Amino acid sequence: MTSHVYKHIELTGSSVESSDDAVRQAIAKAAQTIRGMRWFEVVETRGHIDADAVAHWQVTIKVGFTLEN
């Protein structure tokens, strides 16, 4: 197994569907410009309530990616 050095960034994804979809949205957007993503950690979950129901999810994640040589 080789050694790696990771950089991590914090992202917030949003979705009207679910917290899982909010995470997927954040990762999909980051994947457009960041290579080598390896892991994520959910840091915070929050939402918006409208008419006594969940209307919107926001999930903040840390994403780790491998630094290139």
Explain what this protein looks like in three dimensions.
It is a single chain. The longest helix is centred in the middle third of the chain and has 12 residues, at 19-30. β2 (37-50) and β3 form a beta hairpin. A three-stranded antiparallel beta sheet has the order 1-3-2. Helices cover 17% and strands 55% of the residues. It is built from one helix and three strands; from the N terminus they run βαββ. By secondary structure, it is α+β, with helices and mostly antiparallel strands. The model has no long low-confidence stretch (mean pLDDT 94). The chain has one helix at residues 19-30; strands at 6-15, 37-50, 53-66.
Distance between the termini: 16 Å
The total strand number stands at 3
Q: Structural class, from helix and strand content?
A: alpha+beta
Uncertain segments are: none
Cα shape:
elongated
Question: How much strand?
Answer: over 45%
Helix coverage percent of residues? 10-25%
**Discrete helix count:** 1
How does the major sheet shape up? 3 strands, antiparallel
Q: What order do the strands of the largest sheet run in, or round the barrel if closed? A: 1-3-2
Radius of gyration: 14 Å
